[in-house]
Amino acid sequence: MWEIKSLGYHEEQIIGNGNKFLIGSMNLGVRGTLDEHEKDDLVAVNLPLLYDQVGDSWREPINAFNPLYTVLKVDDEIISLKHKKPIYHEQNLNMLDATMYRKTIFKIGSNEITIESTRFVSSNHDRLIVGNYKVSFKEQADFKIYTGIDYDVWDINGPHLIDIKTNHDLNRLEVSGISYEKSNLIKVVKKVIPNFKVKVQHTLHMDGKILYEILPLKTNSLSYAFDFFAHISIDDKNDLSKEVFDHAVALGFDKLLEDHLTCFHKKWEDSDVKIEGDDEALIALRYSIYHLIILSPDKQKGQSVPARGISGQTYKGAIFWDTEIFMLPFYLNTNLKAAKNIILYRIKGLNGAKLKASYYGYKGAFFAWESQEDGHDACTDYNVTDVFTNRLIRTYFKDKQVHISADIIYALKSYILRTKDDSILYEGGLELLIEVARFYLDYGSYKVLKDRFEILDVMGPDEYHERVHNNAFTNRMVQMVFDYLFEIKDFFTKIKSDYFNKLVHTLGFDAELELIHHMRQKIYIPKPNKDLIIEQFDGYFLLKDIDIKTRLNEKIHPNEYLGGQGLLGDTQNIKQADILTMLYLFRADYSKDIIKANFNYYEPRTEHGSSLSASMYALGACMMENEAYAYPLFMKSASVDLTGDSKQYAGGIYIGGTHPAASGGAYLTAIYGFSGLNIDDEIHLKPALPKSIQKMTYRIKHLGKTYEIMVTKNDYTIKEIL
Amino acid sequence: MWEIKSLGYHEEQIIGNGNKFLIGSMNLGVRGTLDEHEKDDLVAVNLPLLYDQVGDSWREPINAFNPLYTVLKVDDEIISLKHKKPIYHEQNLNMLDATMYRKTIFKIGSNEITIESTRFVSSNHDRLIVGNYKVSFKEQADFKIYTGIDYDVWDINGPHLIDIKTNHDLNRLEVSGISYEKSNLIKVVKKVIPNFKVKVQHTLHMDGKILYEILPLKTNSLSYAFDFFAHISIDDKNDLSKEVFDHAVALGFDKLLEDHLTCFHKKWEDSDVKIEGDDEALIALRYSIYHLIILSPDKQKGQSVPARGISGQTYKGAIFWDTEIFMLPFYLNTNLKAAKNIILYRIKGLNGAKLKASYYGYKGAFFAWESQEDGHDACTDYNVTDVFTNRLIRTYFKDKQVHISADIIYALKSYILRTKDDSILYEGGLELLIEVARFYLDYGSYKVLKDRFEILDVMGPDEYHERVHNNAFTNRMVQMVFDYLFEIKDFFTKIKSDYFNKLVHTLGFDAELELIHHMRQKIYIPKPNKDLIIEQFDGYFLLKDIDIKTRLNEKIHPNEYLGGQGLLGDTQNIKQADILTMLYLFRADYSKDIIKANFNYYEPRTEHGSSLSASMYALGACMMENEAYAYPLFMKSASVDLTGDSKQYAGGIYIGGTHPAASGGAYLTAIYGFSGLNIDDEIHLKPALPKSIQKMTYRIKHLGKTYEIMVTKNDYTIKEIL
After folding, report:
1. What is the pLDDT of residues A141-153, one digit of tens each?
2. Got the DSSP string for A267-305?
3. Number of C-alpha atoms within 13 angstroms, CB side, residue A511?
4. Domains located in chain A, CATH noted
5. Percent of chain B scoring above 90 in pLDDT
6. What average pLDDT does this structure show over B320-338?
7. Active site includes A463?
8. C-alpha–C-alpha distance, residues A474 and A477, integer Å
9. What part of A 421-480 touches B (C-beta under 8 Å)?
10. Which residue in the list A38, A463, A466, A627 is annotated as catalytic?
């Protein structure tokens, strides 16, 4: 139950498979395209978190030159999926090993030609791709293999690399380029080692590629193979990485694979959730976990995880609240270095957040909605195109989705709760908390007559309703921020440290602390109405209550925008879980009856137009003990990148890629929903396994210890791993 | 200089002439169409302020049956502008007399047929139309005249009158109907009195008309004439008005006209502004004043003036802020009964305003944006159609243009200031003031960190920018409300009356009064920046600063909506005067330099997409002593209904009609701009006459006295009229 396999070759699946068979790490994403694929097939060797801007286009992470390019010629005819229909084709991701394999058989006359290749991104070496390419014949044939570096790369808003230089000898190929905006030097080197009966003949330039011509030593064999090694360096102006690369190559394919597997299997040991009784659920959940593992932001200090992971340039390679709310819990259970980095990333971005707040006239820290390096907000005021006029539509993701700052504090709080690692407070965490609280103090409004503190003019998680007042989710999150500030104040008092008071003083925060002390009692938190339903925002119940399908039947254009002035903007129908997200994040505060009433009200009114939606409803269903509702929503979340059902294009713009927040959401559902994990001072479980699942086993880290948890229908065990 | 005349007959001018040659009073509007015109020609005998709704359509004032219909047949051929091209045609409004006259000559073979008719709406009798119809021939001819009541009337959202009954004898014609929503009984009676050589023969029914056939006594004359009298009654179930009508008719055409003129000339005496040196300006301004006179809301207690006056059903016949801000100053100078009614109208609507506030979750009084009877808000959430999708666009006129309540207090304050008539305070004025102040206390927000009271999420006069924060105009108006409340409190203290305190107590307002006392010091009023420019609202300066013409060149459809998500919504270009309106209303607070800086900044960025715009800029130009800028803006305002340049249709919906706010604005410009009238404890003048104007003479009422003011380039006189 570790293999994701696709059989047969269908051109329309190339893009989806690029995501589905993705390998890599937080330093390097290698899309699951094939050896012979090129620019048009959306090949990408992506450098996550390394951003570049060309002209006025969107900033996005750079795609490096592609060192995977390989193509076969038999009797001077190109034998490739791009030119020929195969008689057999499979593509295969081994999730346990994090390796990709392909096998393709072509029939030429009476001969059958089989191409096999394997690749992996080393878990032990920095940005090292290792592979093997093999060709076999039924009958002897005359062939050549071309393999090298394709430097005519795919970009959404490129080209990002200019001043391209190539360098080669029979020992290595090298292509370097300079990034447009910040002049980063990107260098890709590749080395080919004949493995079985081939020789590297010479080098040639062709169509934006630098290639070796590989020939058989003699054509009397039916099988030929070579290994290849590629390395991508960033800003290595003095070629310091050359030695490292040569050393790695010297270890050879087998040793590198062995080391990689040792390392990667260890990650699985910490991360796997074994499901018994439902193989479909097992494979989907493992696939989600596979993604969360390869995305672990533990390669460099202060890394975080972009909303489309390492699958390319979509969503500008930026980091959204997805990371803190949907992914962090996985890392808190499995990889604390990654978890800490997620917090450190935001601490690094504090200055950017202060600048953003200041731009809008507020004090404190207003974090980027689409965060790139240094907290730079890549989000624009125009994120959608009007299909009727082809004009940009003013959207409010950037300036009104103020909950982002509180989401980060929620993450900080969770991290400290689970690790007791208060060092983060001294490393900028406390300043982060203070600046976020300060921002909300300034953003919010005290309503004199109602004697309460309100948060006006925001956008909640449901992005179809713009500029609403008192979004319940946002208000509850702000209350959490204010309360947590005083919790932390108490903590420092208790340990007799004056760090808190000193920092408050340094930041000129004394008077504001006092004001927050007053206001936090007065934050308006919408209460459940007589039917136990919590109004999503002021006036939501006054909106048209039209059946969502009926409304969507009024669509004139399949891709028209549904939010704002669109079809759903003035109805009670919402894009994604909003109240339900609040109920999940603050689940201790709400009764089962409230959760049930709100699930039943909001779910039929939800379009699930975001991959973040299904898991929150799945968790809600678990909390109301209705696993039958939860299961399909869980499966939807877990398999979004397996089925490839998500949108790939919107108005001509590629928006595909993987959905790690959905992966995280599937994990959340399994752990916090199905097994009912709940951690306060102790570890609690309240199993609510769906009918088909008999047993679930997983590990979590908590307060420096590791536990193995086993859950069955009516029972559970918690065992410390020593 | 009292005549508005049009020569020649052009079909495309029928609608415009309906407005241009309007006669009537606040009880009855008679559009300036001609005797032979019908439904398709937008004939209307409009009953202002009497609203009706059919199904889900917009509520609008009722059009009564048309008693003006008359057509001529010569040798069995219809002789009418609808069937024949005339050789001569003139239509004529005598503004001094408030009479409409038409003369049309047709040529049939060698014969020439001249039709003349005169009509007026009696100033002395309630809803009485009086007319005379005359036909003359060059050669004797055989003819018939049909005259009667056309009950197939034009409606925008009708038909409003059902259960139509006709009744007739040779003495009178009668048509009655019942309104759809509230079952008002509308009855139109008509009487014809032969004047010269004709006889009323018999009655016939034809195409939704009930008609007399009028024949020559003998055909040996070249001239024939009859007088007609028509009366419209509302809910006169027992025919009480019959006697009144018969008495009026008995007086006859000449006497009725004489009485009417006496009365109407008196109005002119109080209202005229004589301009010497510029006849074009004189006639345009007089035309504006003519409209303001016929619209005087002094026919019934608590009347006010709809935004399209009495010209028909457009704008739902509703009352906007136009009345308080653009028209009231005219009545304060000329007709105090009308002025008081404008205030009383809103007092009557206080309950409706409280219901509206409550609907949106606020206390106090939030007045209707489009006010019908009892303060009912006829405005919908969807006022515009998207030309690209044919869907309604969510607009914010109704729920965010909160300045309306303050506009009413500005009017109340002006009324008391100019009359010292504090009786209005006891008649509901004080309660109005308290409830409006209460509304703003609840609507506004105290910003804790900035320590100021802000007004968030509003729409200012510039309706293209929706849901803005701290619109300078709105904030300043709210400050005025709060301040005035305490001025009035002091007033009652001074006169040793406990009426204020008692009412405060009755309304449970004690604590709120205290809160307002605190907040009024803290209201945030945006200050001029280093270039002396006042930002229209928070973030306005961050908007795109694109030349307005360049931007409008991007139009795809001539009628596309420019506000909100439209082409101007995200630019610094505005629909109409906003900051300039504030500068005018609070002109004592601002220096000439500030006015100049803001005029120069905002005027080039203004589309003048509202007829309210030009006059505010004209006044601004006067205040900065640039009469050359002011003059064309003044002329634009004064002649909007003369040129008929305003839009008549929008997306198939008739939106034409007269623009009394522009008339009021023209008057304001003449009096407060050109002559520089300024009234505090005394009357001040600061002449700024445009180059072409040598002298201006007008009367004003102030504190119970009447003054005649004469202004020349460098001098002025103020003379009390005893």
Report:
1. 999 999 999 999 9
2. HHHHH-EEEES-HHHHHHHHHHHHHHHHT-S-SSTT---
3. 6
4. 3-243 (2.70.98.40)
5. 94
6. 98
7. yes
8. 5
9. 438, 441-442, 444-450, 453-454, 456-457, 467, 469
10. A463
